[in-house]
Design goal:
The structure holds three protein chains of three kinds. By secondary structure, chain A is α/β, with parallel strands linked by helices. Chain A has eleven helices and 21 strands. Chain A has two domains: about 230 residues, FAD/NAD(P)-binding domain, CATH 3.50.50; about 160 residues, FAD/NAD(P)-binding domain (3-Layer(bba) Sandwich). In chain A, helix 3 runs parallel beside helix 4. The longest helix of chain A has 20 residues. Chain B has a single domain, classed as Ubiquitin-like (UB roll) (Roll). In chain B, about 5% of the residues lie in helices and about 35% in strands. Chain B contains one helix and nine strands, in the order E-E-E-E-H-E-E-E-E-E. Chain B is globular, with a radius of gyration of 14 Å. Chain C has a single domain, classed as BFD-like [2Fe-2S]-binding domain (Arc Repressor Mutant, subunit A, Orthogonal Bundle). Chain C is built from four helices and two strands, in the order E-E-H-H-H-H. In chain C, strand 1 and strand 2 form a beta hairpin. The longest helix of chain C is centred in the first third of the chain and has 11 residues. The mean pLDDT of chain C is about 85. Classes of the chains: A alpha/beta, B mainly beta, C mainly alpha. Chains in contact: A-B, A-C, B-C. Chains B and C meet through loops of B and loops of C. The structure holds flavin-adenine dinucleotide and FE2/S2 (inorganic) cluster. The site of FE2/S2 (inorganic) cluster (FES) has 12 residues of chain B, from loops.
């Protein structure tokens, strides 16, 4: 039996593998993607000091460190089921069946789509798909693209696509409908954009300074949007339909009011050979659900979260979670959470001989500090929601597991 | 070799000489780089449509590109339901698109 | 194309109209919508449309999104061949 199997080789999974292996545990990491690194691979950010953070290089560092410590990492392997054993867990994969004392789910997040008429046409893809195509596989998703959905991720990735030599014609809102929620609402989107000021220092701070109040901002918002890195961000335009016979040829758009209603007579067609849909992220809870974890629905963290405590233990013995499965946050937070999870497993398996609690407390503090300094805040209120969740996690945990 | 490739990137650098292999998609040969997925290799040659939906026959290509949505499923060397976005190319790989049932 | 014809579940090509009609007619939960329309039952296992259907049902006056994962996942969470399910390596 292995000490620890980790599902997901993203920053959380690799972070945990490293901290657990540093205490001598036998660790095996499984991931269905072609390379280790998870969604960190596609990331490319300019820090406020002008230095670029290259996700591929960051992922490689984690990967080599894990290998050095003897961690086994298998890519191209999908985990399709897990089951509780008398002691430990059984992990069913497309490669083989693993038995392990402890199991960590670090499966990350998936993208929430926004259905738009015509969105099944080839050439329409999620914003993350375009990011991976350009930055990881080094193939342009197209020559000229339109992004539907204005949020932290879509603006950041628009810039990355531009660096790949792709022309982004417009970033605009989806049409207000049953499923679009806030994403079609100029004021709400204004609010979320203002959280992005540190990512795109100059244009947005200028922008934010002028229209700090989202209500006023959405109303005064220039009809043709404003430009960041030359890319028009259009909170007062909406995508009505994606057009094309066999694949994407363009998007029919219209102007909208500050509250999202279409202004009659303003329709026109923009041509494009690909379209990205950016609906936000939601934790990928499927394996935790199959395992029988209890959940809480917390919109601030992106959706359904398996209940866990600050040591990343779920309400099931030997089952841990870390990274975006516990709430959508940046890669650095995911990695710090992974470190905590790895140490917690090492403590459960009595591999930390001295001062285990103290060591874990330091790692927990690191998570909080990283969160406070994160460049990208996906949502407001993350810290508060987390504290409440941990309280629940601790209660459930004491009831169910301490015996 | 192809305009869809991001050969030179201002931060990620230049693609070094990659080994080229040939794959076939519905019997048409396409060039691919070692390290490509089926989806990236085909897109580099401008191929977006990977299959047609089983009931209505609408054309489909990649959607998520990371294994979640199964829109990119194809037949590879006779094996069904293979995700093109997660499967590395190999020389002489035979890929077939799925179609209307 | 009108908004109602928008595909919600890509795998099974289930439209907004079909889901709306089902919720209105049967006053049902997202779980029931899934069973009645097959939305969310395709090869992706609902990974793409699950949270949209939850949201839609709530908006249409159905049950509010609760703490339970309403369209609960069933193994296998990835389509696998019978050979693999039987325990042989691929
Ligand atoms: C498309 C996208 C773009 C993002 N862009 C940014 C960004 O620009 N900046 C930022 O700070 N954050 C971004 N994020 C958030 C990002 O998720 C975190 O930054 C970080 O990568 C999360 O780390 P993680 O380890 O929790 O999960 P991930 O990095 O997502 O890794 C999870 C891994 O688990 C694997 N996996 C999942 N299920 C299975 C299974 N059943 N079997 C086998 N393997 C499985 C996946 O293949 C994946 O490699 C993005 C997220 C997404 C989805
Ligand atoms: S494109 Fe979604 S699984 Fe391949």
């Amino acid at each position: 039996m292995i000490d620890l199997v980790i599902v997901g080789a993203g920053p959380a999974g690799l972070g945990a593998a490293i901290s657990a292996a540093e205490y001598g545990l036998e660790v095996c990491v499984l991931d269905e993607f072609v390379k280790p690194g998870g969604r960190l691979l596609g990331q490319l950010h300019e820090e406020p000091d002008g230095k670029w953070v290259n996700g591929i290089a960051e992922a490689q560092k984690l990967y080599y460190r894990a290998l050095q410590l003897g961690v086994k990492i298998k890519c191209g392997v999908s985990v399709y089921d897990i089951a509780k054993l008398e002691s430990g867990w059984c992990v069913y994969t497309t490669d083989q069946i693993y038995e392990t004392e402890c199991l960590l789910l670090a499966t990350g997040a998936s993208e929430t789509p926004i259905p738009v008429p015509g969105w099944t046409l080839p050439g329409v893809m999620s914003i993350g798909a375009a990011q991976v195509m350009g930055n990881v596989h080094r193939v342009k998703p197209g020559e000229k693209g339109i992004i539907i959905g204005v949020n932290v991720l879509s603006v950041a990735i628009a810039r990355e696509l531009q660096l790949c030599g792709v022309h982004i014609e417009s970033i605009l809102l989806p049409q207000s409908s049953f499923v679009s929620g806030d994403s079609a609402h100029p004021e709400k989107m204004m609010e979320s954009l203002l959280r992005l000021t540190h990512l795109a220092p100059s244009p947005l701070i200028r922008f934010g300074g002028k229209w700090v109040n989202p209500k006023i901002g959405a109303r005064l918002y220039p009809r043709n949007g404003f430009k960041m890195w030359g890319i028009p961000i259009q909170l007062r335009k909406t995508a009505l339909e994606i057009l094309g016979e066999y694949q994407v040829e363009g998007v029919r758009i219209a102007d909208i009011s500050a509250t999202g209603e279409v202004v009659p007579g303003t329709e026109k067609v923009l041509s494009a050979d690909f379209v990205c849909i950016a609906g936000g992220l939601t934790p990928m809870s499927e394996l935790a659900s199959v395992a029988g974890c209890s959940f809480r629905y917390i919109p601030e963290l992106g959706g359904h979260i398996p209940i866990h405590n600050e040591c990343m233990q779920t309400n099931l013995k030997g089952l841990y979670v870390a990274g975006n499965i516990t709430g959508v946050e940046s890669a650095k937070v995911a990695r710090a959470q992974g470190t905590v999870a790895g140490l917690s497993v090492a403590r459960e398996l009595h591999a930390i001989k001295q001062r285990a609690d103290e060591i874990i407390d330091i790692a927990k503090k690191e998570v909080i500090d990283t969160r406070r300094n994160a460049l990208i805040q996906f949502q407001a209120g993350i810290e508060r929601e987390r504290e409440e969740l941990y309280d629940k996690g601790n209660n459930v945990f004491e009831e169910k597991i301490s015996v | 070799m192809n305009s869809m490739r991001v050969t030179d990137h201002p931060i990620l650098g230049t693609l070094e000489n990659k080994k080229q292999v040939t794959i076939t998609f519905d019997d048409v040969p396409y060039p691919a780089f070692e390290g490509d997925t089926i989806a990236s290799a085909l897109l580099a040659s401008g191929v977006r449509t990977l299959r047609h939906q089983e009931d209505k026959g609408t054309p489909r290509g990649i959607y998520c590109n990371i294994g979640h949505c199964f829109e990119c499923r194809v037949r590879v060397n006779g094996k069904n339901t293979v995700r093109a976005c997660l499967t590395p190319v190999e020389g002489d790989m035979r890929i077939e698109s799925g179609g209307e049932l | 194309m009108s908004g109602d014809q928008t595909v919600i579940c890509r795998c099974e090509e289930i439209t907004l109209k079909e889901i709306k009609e089902t919720v209105e007619r049967f006053q049902c939960s997202s779980r029931e919508v899934k069973l009645r329309t097959r939305a969310g039952m395709g090869p992706c296992g609902g990974r793409t449309c699950r949270c949209m259907i939850d949201r839609l049902v709530e908006q249409l006056g159905g049950p509010k999104i609760s703490n339970d994962v309403s369209l609960s996942y069933r193994p296998p969470v990835r389509p696998v061949s019978f050979g693999i399910l039987g325990g042989e390596p691929k």
